[in-house]
Write a structure and sequence with these properties.
40% of the residues lie in helices and 12% in strands. It has helices at 8-22, 60-63, 67-74, 91-103, 127-143, 150-158, 160-164, 190-203, 222-225, 247-256, 267-278, 292-302, and strands spanning 50-52, 84-86, 108-110, 171-173, 182-184, 208-213, 233-236, 260-263, 284-289. β6 (208-213), α9 (222-225) and β7 form a beta-alpha-beta unit. α3 (67-74) packs parallel to α4 (91-103). The relative contact order is 0.10.
Length: 303
Amino acid sequence: SQWGAPSFFELTFGMAMEYFHDERADIVILETGMGGRLDSTNVIPTAEVCVITNIGLDHTQFLGEDIRSIAKEKAGIIKDQVPVVLGRMRPEAQSTILAQALKMSSEMHFGRTLPDFLSDLVISPFAAENLATASKTVEILRGQGWDISIDVELFGLENHQSLTGQIGRWQYLPPTPDLSSILLDCAHNVDGVSRLLNSLKQEFPDATLHIVFGAVRDKDLSSVISLIPKSSVMYWCAADIPRAMNVTVLNEIGEKNGLLGYVFDTVEDAVTSARKRCYNVENSKAIVCGSIFVVGDALKIYS
């Protein structure tokens, strides 16, 4: 057709819609693939509620070079007179989204205060704001007639990983007889990596970080790499995908930023090396970050 062949995301999105239709799903949670305004998921004409979480500088070659431009793309999911829930947000992003909500006559709600009954579920640096946003969304759904009790909400949020199969976010792989534990987190942009590293610094102030790191080649890494402590030991690697950034290029970027380490052909080799070097070594912490695909490859090794 004049539009070309559908992408992998477009194909799987269409398959998902067919499946939800066949299964007569009561409610569907759709997450955009990238941006919002031009995303495949935005063909759905209306919604019960639209949710927008924190906006960082990511996919800038497609969404725009600054926060306001990216926020404008994200705000494209707002539907006529459909309520909107906003998570934690930079002021310039919030003002852009509020302007779009006003145009669409959409009521705005802020999901930023964690209810007391969810406080025990905060076990990662990202949990508090995510739980607050999710809980506010459930509250809006209740107001629209959905029968979701507090007990059901608590059960769902407490067990969200087992219910949804979510993996790779602040997830520990336990130690073995000859390997240390390792923390996996799919943080890959400035906001995510900054939050991850700050949390590790608070929890392990004297630790030397052994970081297994890979990225996709269309990403500008300069801002992300600059956040990594110079005392860290780097394990540069590439996920098993065509878009992976070459490890030699990664190493060169690291060296320009004062980071030293090792280069590996596979994620498995990098993870194994980091775990061996941290095994029974006091104040050493092995982590994997930089790309969802690298974390995915690491999980496949030990699944």
